[in-house]
Amino acid sequence: MSGCADITSLALLDLFDARRRMIAAARPICGNEKIALSQAAGRVLVDKVLAPLDIPGIDNSAMDGYALRLNEVCEDGLPVKLRVPAGAEVLCLPAMGCARIFTGAPVPIGADAVIPQERVHLDDDERVHIDDEFAKGVNIRRRGEDTCEGDILLSAGTRLNAAAIALLASHGIGEIDVLRRLKVALVSTGNELIEPGTSRAPGQVYDSNRAMLKALLMQSSCDVLDLGVTADNATELQKTFSQARDEADLVVCTGGISVGEEDHVRPVLERFGGVSFYGVAIKPGKPFTLGYLGDSLETGIPFVGLPGNPVASLVGWQLLALPLVHGCQGRIPAELQQFPVTAGFSRQGPRGRRELLRVVLDWYSGAPIAHLAGGQGSHMLSAASQSEGYLVIEANQDVEEGHVHLYCPIAQFLD
Ligand SMILES: Nc1nc2c(c(=O)[nH]1)N[C@H]1C(S)=C(S)[C@@H](COP(=O)(O)OP(=O)(O)OC[C@H]3O[C@@H](n4cnc5c(N)ncnc54)[C@H](O)[C@@H]3O)O[C@H]1N2
Ligand code: MOO
């Protein structure tokens, strides 16, 4: 028998307390590298970036049309005296004339408006007549109106998404200092586990958690140290954990974390480090564990113990492991995003834990209605693979069709 206390006899931690403890456990890793902007998607900025330039760099046109001085507009129309395509030099607008201009082209000095071509007509002498009233400055994008030299473009700890990369590129920045990748050791435990792509004997189970977690770690820009499958055996686990401790910044382990005598993760963890907390009041994901390898959580390597049941593993990763990963990556962990959504079904609620039902949203009536994405067992990946989010059912509450519950979109975990 394992010497660990039964999870059912322990007070389970509230989800939000557990998240706070995950965030508190994060220590940002040290070590930077300078990389090409083209390689920087998903990486985290070491320092804030100041704008080296004004953007736009010059006053330029927002429309294809005609640049002119509004106070020169008259019944006779204005002759076209210049043609200014994008990339042209900055010219001066001659008196009593206008410029044919194109989107992005420099507005000639003296012009105070750009009139879109569909709001003018040309007479037989090719003079431009304006069909409406226009205000000064219309359709002129002013120098520095987006960002001025010296402005903070992005702050330290920003994860570079496509828009952030475009912002840096727009300032001519071709290389950037980012934090090195977080190195995460990934371990599956279980005698029943085999590799996808091999043939399955009765009782064997394909290791889907490691495939899933590898994808999730890569999505989070981590460097994955894949330590494969370790048998349900304390000696083997001990060997794997000591390699993980020596080579990685963080350990993510799935399976073997529950209370049976075949579950060796916690006893081994307690011998080679310690358990910071065990058990969270969520369904699925109850046996989620935060521990460490080494002397303490402060000085050792954080250890995330995810349950073996695949959906429990996924939910534990998204709700609890991810804030720790983000903190170790130097990011500021985001609040959990939840908003009210109406349930389109009735169902008996969870006892003693918050339940995260895998749902899809139906938008046909205007406001979203949540429907179950399929079977809700923590071993059922089919619904998890279809679902767009979780309908969060408070402990000891039932779901009634038409009633409102909080909804937690999965898209927030992809950033
Ligand atoms: N007596 C109790 N039994 C269980 C409790 C409990 O409180 N008392 N908790 C249950 C809950 S909740 C969960 S979740 C599971 C978690 O168990 P473990 O983390 O110890 O996971 P295993 O026992 O190793 O495996 C559970 C299940 O998942 C399959 N599995 C494991 N690893 C993988 C993998 N890498 N890929 C795919 N599938 C995997 C495994 O074959 C089992 O079917 O414990 C309950 N039991
Ligand atoms: O909490 Mo377990 O994670 O229900 O399957």
From TrEMBL:
SUPFAM superfamilies found in the cross-reference section: MoeA C-terminal domain-like, MoeA N-terminal region -like, Molybdenum cofactor biosynthesis proteins
Which terms are listed as keywords in the entry? Answer: Magnesium, Metal-binding, Molybdenum, Molybdenum cofactor biosynthesis, Transferase
Tell me yes or no: is Transcription regulation among this UniProt entry's keywords.
no
Q: Which domain of life is it from?
A: Bacteria
Looking up CDD domains in the UniProt record yields:
MoeA
Gene3D superfamilies in the cross-refs: MoaB/Mog-like domain, MoeA, C-terminal, domain IV, Molybdopterin biosynthesis moea protein, domain 2, Molybdopterin biosynthesis moea protein, domain 3
For the keyword Calcium, the answer is no
Its UniProt pathway annotation is: Cofactor biosynthesis; molybdopterin biosynthesis
Q: What is its EC number?
A: 2.10.1.1
GO CC field: cytosol
A GO biological process this protein is involved in? Answer: Mo-molybdopterin cofactor biosynthetic process
Q: Which reaction does it catalyse?
A: adenylyl-molybdopterin + molybdate = Mo-molybdopterin + AMP + H(+)
Xref: InterPro entries: MoaB/Mog-like_dom_sf (IPR036425), MoaB/Mog_dom (IPR001453), MoCF_biosynth_CS (IPR008284), MoeA-like (IPR038987), MoeA_C_domain_IV (IPR005111), MoeA_C_domain_IV_sf (IPR036688), MoeA_linker/N (IPR005110), MoeA_linker/N_sf (IPR036135)
Q: MoaB/Mog domain spans which residues?
A: 185-327
Question: What the protein does?
Answer: Catalyzes the insertion of molybdate into adenylated molybdopterin with the concomitant release of AMP.
What's the family? Belongs to the MoeA family.
* UniProt protein name: Molybdopterin molybdenumtransferase
Q: From which source organism is this entry?
A: Vreelandella salicampi
